[in-house]
Structure formats: structure tokens, C-alpha cells
Fold:
Amino acid sequence: MTNGRVLSGIEFARTGDGGSRRLLLDLYLPDPQLMDTDPTPAYSQAPRPAVAHFHGGGWRTGERSSLGPVLDGLGLSAFDRLLDAGFVVASADYRLSQEALFPAQLHDAKAAVRWLRDHAADYNVDPARIYAWGDSAGGHLASLVGLTGTNAEDSSVTAVAAWYPPTDLGRMAEQSLPDAVARADAPGSREELLVGAVLADEPAKAAAASPISHVGASAPPFFLAHGTADRFVPAAQSESLAAALEGAGADVELLLIDDADHMWTLPDQSQAAAEKAMGATVSFFLRQSQAPDTPAP
Structure:
């Protein structure tokens, strides 16, 4: 890290037979001595907001240190950006679909949030300012955490940012672009492997795994970012969730980036879309962290 330190491989939960499966996260901590946002020593000691991050990979692949091969190749230092802005970041693994079916992934994501809140005092985290962020499959999980997390189980978050998330599994196929390279109704699709069923045959399972089904008046503020040329997860997925959130009275921001495919790939291969999305995400979290009416967990 350029501006802090990372504690790698922290166990945040155990699952499986006899608790044999260890779930790990990496914790990124800003260095208060290097923070431009710390004008005084007293402020340096103030509890910081934190972001729980969940990686993408179609629930089949991916790891907690990555934002996907394209963005990793661009050198987008996403966690550094958040550290620079004064956030603690916890990037967590979760069980993939070949290991366990949904809702195991959501249970794991919530466990990571609970761990972060339980250990807030240990790492100078403000438990009232814990947010969720994810990309693709991770954006799906971050959205579900935001819409289903509860104060009673300490898994609530007070804001969510999701990049190109699947939000309505039952409608993904019909919303796909003509040149889609992945469709939810294809045999053995990522979505079908997640729920363990053909989506059309099991609409209840598809709905249960869809963030849009859980939208309600208690939804936290959301930031959704999607490329209009996404051939894996159609941009209509973010548009639909944004409309549902707005209809429920939630605070929602939707950023659509023209011509951007999944992982912010542009026709000119530049990183302009990724930079725009990252800047908007940090700005969103900063606004949330400075809101005067942040609710207590």
C-alpha cells in the first residue's frame, strides 16, 4: 500500500462441517501520519468510516484482493483511493457457487460486516459508518447486504455502492444486449449455478437471490454504476434497481457510462470509465461519511 498498511488473511468466520472452512478478509488501514485529511492530531484519533468490499467473478471465481483481471491490469488502486480519503477497507472472501449455493454467499458477506462492527474499537472504526461496496457478483452481494442486513444481527450498513451488479435474476436474460457474451438463461449460467436451478423453473429462488425483491422503505443510500455496453450484466439491471429504490423513497444515485462494457472496458482501451466510476464512488462514500444524520447501528 502507498499510504497505510494491510493486515492480510484475518479469519472473520468459520463454516462447513465442524467449522472447518475458514473465511478470510484483508484489512486496509490508513496511516494517520500521512493523511492529508487529518488537520489535527486529535482528528487523527477519531473513529474512521469503513467500507466492506466484496469481489466479483460471477460467484464462481475471484478473490478478495482483486477487482477483476481488466481493472487489475489497468493498475486501478481502488483500495488506495479509499485509504487516501480516510476510510478503513475490509475486503472479504465468500464461498463460491461450486462450494455452496445461495444464500451461503450472503451469509458470508454479512458475517464480514458483523466482524468489522464487532472489532470496530480494535481498528478505530466508527460502527455507525460502515458501508458496503462490490463489483459485479460482489455488487450483487453488497446490494443484498444493504437491503437485508439488520441492526439485530449487526450486519446493517448505512450506504451501498455497487458496480454493474445483477439485481433481478429473473429478468436478466430478457434485458441482455444483442451481442451479450453471457446470458442468465444459458445452460449452466453463473446465475443458475448460484441458485442451483434453472431460473425459469424456480422463480421463487431467482427472486430470493435478487436485490430488487428486497427493496423497502428502510433501504440505505445507494450508488449504482454501470456501463451502457455491458455484455455480461445488462445496464437495465442497475436502472431497474434504481427505479425501485427511488419508488421506495430511498436515496439513490445512478451513473451510466456510455460505451463501457463490464469491468469498465472501453473501445479505446483507456481507463477513463474506471477512473470516473472510482472517483464517483469515493465521492459518494465521502458524502455519506459526512452526513450529519448518520443513524446509529
